[in-house]
Known about the structure:
The protein is α+β, with helices and mostly antiparallel strands. It has one domain. Helix content is about 35%, strand content about 30%. The protein has seven helices and eleven strands. Strands 2, 3, 4, 5, 6, 7, 8, 9 and 11 form a nine-stranded antiparallel β-sheet that branches. β7 and β8 form a beta hairpin. α1 (about 10-35) runs parallel beside α5 (about 175-185). The chain is globular, with a radius of gyration of 19 Å. Mean pLDDT is about 75; it is low at about 1-10 and about 20-45.
Amino acid sequence: MLTRDSSGSPALMNRTALLLAALMFAASVGAIVARPATQAPGVQQAISLETMIPRQFGEWREEPQRYAQVVNPQAQELLDKLYSEILARVYVNDSGYRIMLSLAYGSDQRGTLRAHKPEVCYPAQGFVVRRNEAGLLATTYGDIPVRRLFATMGLRQEPVTYWFTVGDRAVQGSTHRRIVELGFGLTGRIPDGMVFRISSLDSDSSRAYRLQEQFANQLLQAVSPAERKRLSGLGDS
């Protein structure tokens, strides 16, 4: 039985499904005619997250990690397969508030190499995801489509904000990401991608999301326009 949701009519849903099916069919034909052989624009230039991300910007400065990060061996093996660059840092402001930054870059985001979602990775590490909501993170350069999670493990409460990029575009949701990837495939280019994640240990999720937005804004202001595009899909205002 066809169901109707609040976003539109069955006819609209059918048109959306047909459009996606048409794009997938076109991509399959394009894959035969012209197999992706080149990287997306700018990918030929090596990326170094370590040098791209400043250790101090705005109100934030890097804090040496006081505790070794415990990583499940299977998770680490998967990370090594999925990503060519990984960066994890902890930043603190003058008030002593800490934000954990995690970036993972993959030069090939096709098939099984697509970036994994935090709402999948967190439960795999023993967390319970209490909330998972789509949202927009407002910046000086435009809005970034993000997801906000609230994950817990025992007494640990961790609000999370994250987004994906494919090529030089921020994407939200599997359908949007797939459409962007298909666009690259039709032009014979291999899409790279990144997951940008920030989180805090904070029981007050509203405060955490507000400070995470401030953190992201000040970071994007501190990097070059080309680096900002790679990190968020946003250009100059």
